[in-house]
Specification:
Distance between the termini: 123 Å
Radius of gyration: 48 Å
Strand content: 35-45%
Order of helices and strands: EEHHHEEEEEEHEEEEE
Mean pLDDT: 80
Number of domains: 2
CATH superfamily of the largest domain: Lipid/polyisoprenoid-binding, YceI-like
CATH architecture of the largest domain: Beta Barrel
Largest sheet: 11 strands, antiparallel
Number of helices: 4
């Protein structure tokens, strides 16, 4: 501290270092006030931002179901709109009616040999509305052969022919369908007798196009020797070529009618 005499007034002079120590409380007080105001301002800004964020979230939540519904509808329209009419149609479902159907066979011989099979099952299944996607499957109980003659039936059931004890079923399952005319088809498939399977062709004509009922009439010829049937019936000379005729009545129980090639 320094004293300076100036007439009647005495002035107090302080070094700068002491003056600096006198100022901080005021400055700190002012800074505290400023910081407090700043905190209130930040808090207010944060609250406003939070409210805006909450409102934005509420709006998004409100719009999300509409957006989801719109997207689902758009996808459905694209999916169905992008498919050709045949793809949108339902696959046809057929049932064969055995009571009105029959499976016959015949072979040229010195004495006529013709007959039917009394027990069999058949199905026609489609994987699409395209008629060539159809699969014909026939299962015949060999023991049900009926020529009208007990002697002939017995011989055909024996080991020389159908061998029904060891191979009770005769089957055909198509593997390829080729449309050859407006209502005619060639069906290539696996034909099995006596446990021997070969590729054979069934040529058929279909009726009832576009309706709920109809029929298919088909013929298949095969060489009996290809299946190990090399014997004859006593006193009867039998040709090698055997012809099978299939007449199946069907009804469409559901789905769209098959689409034929024009």
């Amino acid at each position: 501290m320094y004293e300076i005499a100036n007439n009647y007034t005495t002035a107090m002079v302080f070094p700068r270092s002491q003056m600096a120590r006198l100022r901080p409380p005021l400055e700190q007080s002012n800074q505290g006030s400023i910081m407090h105001k700043s905190k209130r301002s930040v808090s207010a800004s944060g609250l406003q931002a939070s409210e805006k964020w909450s409102c934005a979230n509420d709006e998004r939540d409100r719009l999300r179901p509409r957006a989801s519904n719109f997207l689902a509808t758009a996808l459905c329209l694209l999916a169905f709109g992008g498919l050709p009419p045949a793809s949108r149609a339902q696959v046809p479902v057929y049932e064969v009616t055995p009571v009105e159907s029959n499976i016959r066979f015949g072979v040229e011989s010195s004495v006529p040999i013709k007959g039917t099979f009394d027990k069999w099952d058949a199905s026609i299944k489609f994987s699409s509305v395209d008629v060539t996607s159809g699969v014909l499957e026939v299962e015949i109980e060999a023991d049900s052969v009926n020529t009208g003659s007990g002697m002939k039936n017995g011989k055909l059931r024996s080991k020389d022919f159908f061998d029904v004890k060891d191979f009770p079923m005769i089957t055909f399952k198509s593997t390829k369908v080729v449309q050859t005319g407006p209502n005619t088809f060639d069906l290539e498939g696996n034909f099995t007798i006596r446990g021997v399977t070969n590729k054979e062709k069934l040529t058929l004509t279909a009726s009832g196009k576009g309706t709920t009922s109809g029929s298919i009439d088909g013929t298949m010829a095969f060489d009996r020797k290809d299946y190990g049937m090399t014997s004859n019936i006593p006193l009867i000379k039998i040709a090698n070529r055997v012809e099978v005729n299939v007449n199946l009545k069907w009804k469409r129980v559901s789905g769209s009618p098959p689409v034929f090639e024009e």
